[in-house]
Design a protein that fits this description.
Layout (H helix, E strand, L loop, with lengths): L8 H6 L41 E10 L2 E10 L5 E7 L7 H12 L3 E5 L14 H7 L6 H17 L3 E11 L1 H12 L5 E5 L26 E6 L7 H13 L5 E5 L16 H17 L4
Parallel strand pairs: 3-4, 3-5, 5-6, 6-7, 7-8
Antiparallel strand pairs: 1-2, 2-4
Length: 296
């Protein structure tokens, strides 16, 4: 059935949302910002990719979650239904223009793409000018459990739209969102595939982030393609090798591609870190990966 709205699917969706509500701390962010995050400025206009809305429809929506609503950006082809679904997980900068553009790129390929503002309860990173402040004041306060629940809610929202086919469910994410891809692949058994762009793999555990990808290798329920830079100072090469070893030890079909002499955020075409060749190769690999594993 188009959109995968079969009669028994409603109960499947409800099972994604936890019975116990998350802490009712309120929502700081109730709508998405326009343009780019302050800490990501100035934008490198000469390399920035801009994807138009021709043949597409979408915009900002409110997604019901366990304790309220979070703003999200969604976009899809303007005609038809039953589109494969992809969750697009933001960088530390929140859902700003670059993440919205990535959603449009997937929509041009026939996807229903949705990017939720996953820091909505903790703060608005788009207004902060210093990256260390974003990390200390917002990112450090975001619990993984909350993120998994909000992503589940986006899947439910997509299915109820009547446009998306959540039987073909994928996820991709960048930096902070790259780590979340690995976690979600261990969380949701309905996921078909994921693509993690330079997401941290091994760090000290704490109350907010009790496990990291290397700890969850045995629990992966869907194959993940990891795309990493060999010159990424924030993700040591030994953690990449630990992850590769963990995947091999647990007979997981996930793969990691390491681009030599390539920095962090090499896909971010609006930043000086952008590397055109690696970004384009990674994108092509990502699209092929999703198709190979039934998420297209």
């Amino acid at each position: 059935m188009p959109g995968d709205m079969r009669p028994d699917f409603k109960s499947d969706l409800e099972s994604l949302i936890p019975d116990a509500p998350l802490s009712r701390r309120g929502f700081v962010v109730t709508s998405l910002s326009a343009g780019f995050a302050a800490a990501a400025m100035p934008v490198q206009a000469q390399t920035m990719i801009t994807t138009d809305m021709y043949g597409l429809e979408g915009g900002e929506v409110k997604v019901p979650v366990a304790d309220g609503t979070v703003p999200a950006y969604h976009v899809m082809p303007s005609s038809g239904s039953g589109f494969p679904t992809i969750l697009v997980v933001m960088e530390i900068f929140g859902v700003h223009e670059h993440i919205k553009d990535v959603c449009r790129r997937f929509a041009k390929l026939g996807y229903y793409a949705i990017a939720p503002e996953l820091y909505a309860r903790q703060g608005d990173p788009t207004k902060i000018t210093e990256i260390p402040r974003i990390l200390s004041e917002i990112v450090s306060k975001v619990p993984d459990k909350q993120v998994m629940s909000d992503l589940d809610a986006c899947v439910a929202f997509a299915a109820k739209s009547g446009k998306a086919n959540t039987d073909k469910l994928a996820i991709t994410g960048f930096c902070w969102g790259g780590r979340i891809v690995w976690l979600y692949a261990a969380h949701n058994p309905k996921l078909k595939a994921g693509v993690a762009w330079y997401g941290p793999l091994a760090r000290p555990a704490n109350e907010m982030t009790p496990k990291h990808p290397v700890d969850l290798a045995a629990e992966l329920k869907a194959p993940v393609l990891g795309l990493y830079g060999g010159a990424d100072s924030g993700i040591p090469s030994d953690t990449i090798e630990k992850m590769r070893a963990a995947l091999k030890a647990n007979n997981k079909p996930s793969e990691i591609v390491l681009y030599p002499d390539t920095p962090h955020a090499f896909h971010a075409d609006y930043r000086p870190s952008y590397r055109k060749q690696q970004a384009e190769d990674g994108w092509n690999k990502a699209v092929a990966w999703l198709k190979k594993h039934g998420a297209a």
